[in-house]
Amino acid sequence: MGKTAAIEAAKSLFLILSALFPIVNPLGGSPFFLALTKEYSPKSRRALSRQIAMNSFFLLVGSYFIGTHILAFFGISLPVVQVGGGLIVISTGWTMLKQRDDNERTSVSQNADPDHAFAQAFYPFTLPLTVGPGSISVAITLGANTVHHAKAHLWTYLAALVGSAMVAFSVYLCYGFADRLARTLGTTAMSVILRLSSFLLVCIGVQILWNGASELLASVPLQLH
After folding, report:
1. Alpha helix positions (H), the chain
2. Which of 88, 100, 77 is nearest to 205 (CA)?
3. 18 exposed, middle or buried (CB, 10 Å; 0-12, 13-18, 19+)?
4. Are 55 and 126 in contact (CB under 8 A)?
5. Which phi and psi angles does 130 have, rounded to 5°?
6. Which residue in 175, 191, 218, 225 sits closest to 36, CA to CA?
């Protein structure tokens, strides 16, 4: 593994973790998961959280690797995906920064039946409680934003797998030990984590937007007379 490939892999890993973790937000979702599974024993809750984490991993990886091919089928160019995805990331980060929107997760907690939680491991626990449309959009955007250098190609994709696995593992930890997490972290600490992550998400969105816009501007022929 060359130095350039290592740098690209490290950048990709940091980018994936920084972009996906605030949106997936397992810390913010753990109180709702705990409310839905309050009748479960700690052992059953950890078993359910393990299944949700696995579902989240495959959903994120599928969006990252296959999403761009689906877009190519519809004839959407890579720079356009970067610009559109960057705008989505900025908008999501800004919304989270201004106010915490728990509408989607609240509606799930009102409609889901804890007695049938294991049968609903994918929906609604994984989608949209954990990995929602915003997370899928970001994963597709990150896949489209991947640097496709020959030497860094394999390691960049490996970093994507590792990053998705780390996000999924954080889901398992936060959900599986939600009861302990609720006692350890207070409301103030949760709010601080959310605000810091949201600001970082806005910055990442601006960078992705600029990457796409730069390519689009560079493709415009200059008419110099």
Report:
1. 3-24, 26-36, 42-73, 78-98, 103-111, 133-144, 153-176, 178-184, 187-218
2. 88
3. middle
4. yes
5. -105, -60
6. 175
Q: CA-CA distance, 87 to 218, in Å (whole number)?
A: 20
Domain boundaries, the chain: 3-218
Tokens representing residue 156 in the block: 């960049």
CB atoms within 10 A of CB 14: 13
What are the pLDDT digits (tens) for 35-92? 778 788 888 889 999 999 999 999 999 999 998 788 778 888 778 877 887 887 788 7
Q: How far apart are CA 209 and CA 140, in angstroms?
A: 14
CA separation for the pair 214, 225 (Å, rounded): 23
